[in-house]
Design goal:
With about 290 residues, this protein is α/β, with parallel strands linked by helices. It is built from six helices and 15 strands. Helix content is about 20%, strand content about 30%. The radius of gyration is 18 Å and the shape is globular. It binds zinc ion (2 copies).
């Protein structure tokens, strides 16, 4: 992880990189108090082995879509942690999906055998009278797959994705993406039990190079939020240290954590463990040159 940059896509071809397009949880919060860390909800682009993985479809996916079109990228695989609004409500605004020359494969691990699967859930959010444009208006080559959290698969040659079930209302899936001897994990939305490290999470993130973790709350805020399905940046550090992880990206920021609050959290986290950083919209991490 040699470079961290902000702003537009650098355009340099590298074999494994992670770019954050949305880092908020719960609801998008475009405001003058959310400029430094960003106001878009969850969306991350992972460029790996010449292919594109997208993690979640929060509001950040709108700008990612524009960037993919500009870069001439014609196919991607979207991995969804779950289908709460903050992880899918950018999907109807993902412009590449409306283009006949774009292929999008969509996968989710929390719906197998229920709710009609991921296609039905994405279609429902675009139904009359809550959205004017139906899923069928997306002219791209869309395909859908439901799996069970805990399964592994190879979305592309030399790329392995492992998954694990997370503790979250209506369930969620954690992901581990492996390529060229490096591992990036995406673990949101998930709630911990104080003093009892989540074994599913520990197993998933073991020895990873980067873990992106649900840090919606602080340990001080957590007791009032038990049962809401989220965790803390302090628990992220505890898990990463226990699992021999190199770097933690504090993620899924609470909308109430405005820039000044986030700067304080980031400084406190770094003081506790220098492997910690707070994710920001536009942050770009190179895993393998
Ligand atoms: Zn969320
Ligand atoms: Zn959620």
């Amino acid at each position: 992880m040699d470079r961290i940059s902000r702003g537009g896509y650098a355009g340099v071809d590298v074999s494994f990189r992670v770019k954050f397009w949305g880092v908020r949880g719960s609801i998008a919060c475009p405001s003058p108090d959310h400029v430094i860390y960003g106001g878009n909800t969850s969306c991350i682009e992972v460029s790996v082995g010449g292919n594109t993985l997208i993690l979640d479809a929060g509001t950040g996916i709108r700008m990612l879509g524009q960037s993919l079109i500009q870069r001439g990228i014609a196919k991607a695989t979207l991995l969804l942690t779950h289908t709460h609004w903050d992880h899918i409500n950018g999907f109807p605004f993902f412009a590449p999906a409306f283009r006949p020359d774009f292929a999008l494969h969509i996968m989710a691990g929390h719906l197998a055998g229920s709710q009609g699967g991921i296609r039905a859930v994405l279609a429902n959010q675009m139904e009359n009278p809550t959205f004017p444009v139906p899923l069928s208006a997306m002219r791209g080559a869309l395909s859908f797959a439901d799996f069970r959290a805990g399964e592994s698969f190879e979305p592309f040659p030399e790329v392995t994705v492992r998954t694990a079930p997370l503790r979250h209302p209506n369930n969620a899936t954690g992901y581990r993406i492996e390529h060229a001897g490096k591992a990036v994990c995406y673990v949101t939305d998930t709630e911990h039990v104080p003093g009892e490290p989540d074994r599913n999470v520990l197993g998933l993130i073991d020895q990873a190079d980067l873990v992106i973790y649900d840090s919606t709350y602080t340990d001080a805020e957590f007791p009032a939020k038990v049962g809401w399905g989220h965790s803390t940046w302090q628990e992220g550090i505890r898990l990463c240290r226990a699992a021999g992880v190199a770097r933690l990206a504090i993620f899924h920021h609470d909308p109430d954590h405005v820039d000044t609050v986030m700067a304080g959290i980031e400084a406190e986290a770094r003081a506790l463990w220098d492997g910690a950083m707070a994710a920001r919209d536009g942050m770009d991490l190179v895993m393998v040159e």
